[in-house]
């Protein structure tokens, strides 16, 4: 099977603190690949390394046919001022303005319409992005990442703060992009129910511990999950313990 991304022996440290150490895995074309693990495990660091925003100390990240791979990314937090005057449509189109001319071509306009309809953001296309609800904004962010027709889509907790219905709708969209266009998706989530429903394979990570497997292999191993989610909180200081990473997790999620 075609590998879209191959991560080999990745090592990343910040000021001498090792965050990722000898992490290896690969993701295939059209695969929904979930990354789970407690706060501070290095999940966002992993995505930023794949994007080239962080320079690893060691290891390799190889994108399939690197020069042509288009990567879409929705970061973990994106602060938009309520008064931001840009419309949802213009915000989405920012994802595609890469050509010589600063205005969109006919083709770009067509793609923009298609993506906005696909993500159901056309309903509020003219509204200023600052006036949209959190869930509407998340869909706009996804639309902006999709408008370039990425080969690889990196989602950092894109469904956090969405109501359960909106979470499902967003994941269904992403799954459709994977199955219809062969987009490989790496998504970080703390919602194990959502992971169980939408992931093909899962990477469970903690500091220095990594396990990749099918969603059944990872999510049905309650003892391993518990160990991993407790490993960082037991090492951490009181502040982190108060905000226990496992608090919001449904570890008792029943196997389907
Ligand atoms: N640029 C940076 N400089 C220094 N330390 C950093 C930097 N980026 C991340 N870190 C540290 O690396 C560790 C992993 O951070 P990361 O954001 O990857 O965690 P995460 O798994 O995404 O956590 P969460 O679930 O809370 O989003 C944290 O301890 C963080 O403080
Ligand atoms: Mg993160």
Give an account of the 3D structure.
The chain has helices at 43-51, 88-93, 106-118, 134-146, 164-181, 192-198, 215-219, 222-235, 238-242, and strands at residues 3-14, 17-28, 32-36, 58-63, 71-74, 152-156, 184-188, 201-206, 209-214. The chain is an alpha/beta fold and 256 residues long. The strands form 2 sheets. A 6-stranded mixed β-sheet has the order 5-6-7-3-8-9, with helices on both faces. The chain has a 3-stranded antiparallel β-sheet with strand order 2-1-4, covered by helices on one side. 35% of the residues lie in helices and 24% in strands. It is built from 9 helices and 9 strands. Bound molecules: adenosine-5'-triphosphate and magnesium ion. Residues 5-232 form the ABC transporter domain. Keywords: ATP-binding, Nucleotide-binding, Transport.
Name a few traits of the molecule.
256 residues; alpha/beta; Rossmann fold; six-stranded mixed beta sheet; 9 helices; 35% helix; 24% strand; globular; disordered C terminus; binds adenosine-5'-triphosphate; binds magnesium ion; ABC transporter ATP-binding protein; ATP-binding
What's a concise summary of this model?
This protein is α/β, with parallel strands linked by helices and 256 residues long. The chain has 9 helices and 9 strands.
List the helices and strands and how they pair.
Blueprint (H helix, E strand, L loop, with lengths): L2 E12 L2 E12 L3 E5 L6 H9 L6 E6 L7 E4 L13 H6 L12 H13 L15 H13 L5 E5 L7 H18 L2 E5 L3 H7 L2 E6 L2 E6 H5 L2 H14 L2 H5 L14
Parallel strand pairs: 3-7, 3-8, 5-6, 6-7
Antiparallel strand pairs: 1-2, 1-4, 8-9
This protein binds adenosine-5'-triphosphate and magnesium ion.
